[in-house]
Amino acid sequence: MLRDDLINAIIDLDEDRALLLVREEIINGATPLEIVERCRHGVELVGKRYSEEIYYLSDLIMSEEIFRGIMEILEPCFKDIEQNKGMKIVMGTIEGDIHDLGKNIIISLLRSVGFEVFDLGVDVQPEQFINKIIETGADIVGISVVLTFSINSVRKVIQMMEESGLRDKVTVVIGGYPVDKRVREYTGADYFETEASKAVELMKRLAEEKNISNR
Prior knowledge:
Layout: H1 2-11, H2 15-27, H3 32-51, H4 57-78, E1 88-93, H5 101-112, E2 116-119, H6 126-136, E3 140-144, H7 151-163, E4 171-175, H8 181-187, E5 191-192, H9 196-213
Parallel strand pairs: 1-2, 1-3, 3-4, 4-5
Helix pairs in contact: 1-2, 1-3, 2-4, 3-4, 3-5, 4-5, 5-9, 6-7
């Protein structure tokens, strides 16, 4: 199957073939969500090979570059997708942390189903989250944290939201390798997710709840 070929191309780090297959999938009518999900699976399998010491760090970085190239191809497709009930999401990796693969995958999945996502990038200071929430009127803020020493900065974001009167208006979702129930409680976040597909389902549920409450 074509989609299996796409996953294999990513696993094999064959960038040219992966990009070609993505273009073919678009022509054949595959949705952005379907394509991103296959790519996510391929990148995760590369990560698994890295954790098993089959692949090197350079291979892991290569898979991320392939994914970015695929997203450049898919980006125009997102413009044709109906926005998801006007839901706006601000996302970024907290200050002191430059990990962005998981964040980028989730953002791609969210955009592929119609969410308007504002990506602040990595090493984002708490003040930047606050300013962007105010600027965009976002309904949700998603904070990625992989390094445990950056967890206190996540807590600071939420404290600053309380001080600026935003806390009751904006839902906070956190995610990343060290995140669990205890981290959620410590930071004061509303929700946490560590799996991309589950994070997207959570955002869709929050959007539906917002839509119902506004009727």
